[in-house]
Structures are given as C-alpha cells and as structure tokens.
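Usage

Read records sequentially. Each one opens with the input sequence:
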Amino acid sequence: MKILHLIDSAGLYGAEVMLLHLIAEQIKQGLQPIIASIGEKGIDEKPLEKEAKKRGYRVKKFRMAPGPNYLGALNILRFAWHEGIDILHSHGYKGNILFGFIPGKIRRIPIITTVHGYTSTGNGLRRMRAYEWLDSKALRFMDAVVFVSNAMKSDSRFKHLNPSKVHVIHNGIPLTTSDSPSHAPSFSALDAADLDQHILDFCTNTFTLGSIGRLSPEKGYIYLVRALKIIRDKGHDVRLVIIGEGGERPKLEQEISRLGLRNHVLLPGYRANASAYLPYFDVFVLPSLTEGLPMTILEAIRAKVPIVATRVGGIPDILQEEKSCLFVRCKDPESLAGALIRFLEDPTLGKSLTDNASDVLSTQISINMTSMRYKQVYQKVGLPPKLWTV
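and closes with the structure output:
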C-alpha cells in the first residue's frame, strides 16, 4: 500500500516529528510512504525535507503560490496518479483545504486527515482563525478524519462530521531513543558533547524547569515566567529554560526584564535536537492554552522527567492527576507556582510520577500501536462505503 503524506511544514515541530516516527514504523510494516512537502515558491529546502532525506525517506517537493492553489493541488494529484498512490494522508489545514473540496470522482484516491490541533485561542490572528474555519468545513468531505485526542473529537466545531468517518488515534513515539533511526541525530540519544554547552551549564547545580515549544501565545509561556517570579520570591533558587523560537519572544523578553529574571531564564532559541535536553530538566512544564497531543509530553514521559501541565487536548487522555503528572489551571501563574514548589518540598514526588507515567509508553503511546491503527483506517477507506463500520 502506497501512502502519500501531504504536509506544509514550517519547521521540525510536533506534527513533523510525529510524521517522521510514523513513516519509520510504516516502512517496518511493509507500507510505502512518501512525503509530499508543500511550500511557497522560492523556498529551497525545509527542515522536514532535510531530516527526511537524512533518514532515507522519499520526499517530493511541491512549490506553489500561497492560498487555495488548485493548480498546485492538480500537480500533486498527477504525481499521485503516476505513482499509483493508494491513500492520501493530509497533515494540516493546507492539505485539507487543497484536497478536501475536490470531489472524489476527480481526486480518484481516498483521503484521510490527521487534525493535529488548532492554534488560535479565540483572540488570535484573524487569518489563522479563518484558515481554521475553512479547514473545519473541508473535513466534511474527507473519507476519514483522525483526531489526536478525545477532547478535539468533542469540539463543537466538528459536530457536523459523520461519526462513521471519525477516529481518535493518539500520537505515538518509539519506546526508547534507540528505536529511532541511528542516522537521525535530531531524535535519537546524543552524547553531551553534541549539545549546547551554554544550555547544559545553565541547567547545572540549580533546580531547573524546562519546556520545549514555539514561542507563541497559545503556549502560555508568559504565565510560566510569572510563576517563576512567584517561586523565587518565596526563596527558592530555581531557573527556567524554554527551547524554541517564535513571534512571542519580544513580549517574553520584556516580561523577563520587568520581573528581574534575566539571570534566571534562558531562551536559547530553536534546537533541532531539543528532546535531547530533557534529561537535564528537573521538571518539564507545559502551560499551553490549547494542544492536540504534544510530542514533547510523550518525549518527557520517555525521558522519565516529571510533568506539570495544563489540562488541555489529549494530555488527560494519557496522564492521571497526582498519579502520573500534576495538572494546573490555564493562565494561572499561582497554580503553576504551587504545583512546582511541591517538587522542591517533596524530593520523592518526581520519581513517583515518572514511574507511573512510564506505564503509558507501551500501553497507549507506542508508535507501533499508532501505526497499526492508521493502517486499519487506510484499509477501511479503501473499501466501498457500504462496507464501512462505525
């Protein structure tokens, strides 16, 4: 079975990491995946394309003008027809909008989509909200829609979808870093010599809170910075490192300076091998306002780093309050600070949480299970609709 994965990626973030893991497992299972990497004209090579090629995966670049470019979509379809593609698998609104509104009789290939998550939080960019609205309408015409969490499936924006086409498949991850391709250092275990010494030095000899993600409003990092101020004002020597880049950086830097935290917060920027720094964090913190099922949470579980997170997206699907993580309220620095101080006051708390969290690796979030469930969806949409089961 040949699968053409459609994606317009901006970096190596959660959806891209998930796709790379999925392709590795699909190859093991005898499928033939290809990445159709969509981008605007003038872009040479995207990080996902570079990483996929490094791993030996097949990638086909498609460059086109922005917006609903249906001439570009036709070029992709011609490639798919020529290659004998059996399933189109879209990851994100670009592929959904390009192909969701094309009638099946013209497309001639079944299409499924994975909704990894919406990033607007109600007061975000007007353009992003418009894309998300258009995307939600395109989902109606997909042969199958996969959500990465039960919370997303229950969202009122998707109540119009045919239940027989809707599935929930959690993101997955290799059970150990050694299961990742050895030639792909971005996601495999690295020697400390390969890491940024400045970050390692910052994390040494001081209790360190860490997070990994885009510096954007929906990630809630402004509240984490304010929580650090509360913790330090209570006399605790704690530092914070946030690995990632984005448009929220100026606002975060301004807040860090305003609170007098410049010597206690590190924003080192984007790192392709960000997950390799997880073992140097005492606690992994995810203060997001909205999520699908973030890969960073799965990576923190695998690295056995205790987790404090907001109760958003698919995180409550896999982690339990007080058993495998601590949940906090969104946009609430006091709640965040209170949870984090518990680790300082109870040194045994972290190990208890990580021991319990490790159990979900093999039972809920292994990439093998994720890939098998996708294969079942592929097989279902390849059948005539009258043979589908809810």
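Summary fields computed downstream for this record:
- The two ends are 23 Å apart (CA to CA).
- The chain has two domains: 2-172+366-387, 188-363.
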